[in-house]
Design brief:
single chain; mainly alpha; two-stranded antiparallel ribbon; 2 strands; globular
Length: about 80
């Protein structure tokens, strides 16, 4: 019995980014990359869920209700403005 394929994180990110672009259907991407469409949906969802963590790790805060990104000094200013209202 053959072993299941182990895909690298780089490959998963590449496939997920292609899916996010929307230039091809998921079925077309699955055929092109040789993976099941369900895997593409899973990787795409993981990429979207992990994106805010990446931004925070490089010092960019995201305001969840409105999706505005702030660099650290601006984020502090925004917190002070919100506290005053």
């Amino acid at each position: 019995m053959p072993k299941r394929k182990q895909h690298s994180p780089e490959f998963k990110a590449k496939v997920a980014l292609e899916a996010l672009k929307g230039e091809q259907t998921v079925a077309e991407s699955a055929s092109r990359f040789g993976v099941h469409p369900t895997m593409i949906h899973t990787w795409k969802r993981a990429l979207l869920e992990g994106a805010s963590g990446v931004l925070v790790s490089i010092g960019i805060e995201v305001c969840p209700p409105i999706g505005i990104q702030y660099c650290p000094p601006c984020a502090e200013q925004a917190r002070r403005c919100v506290a005053l209202t």
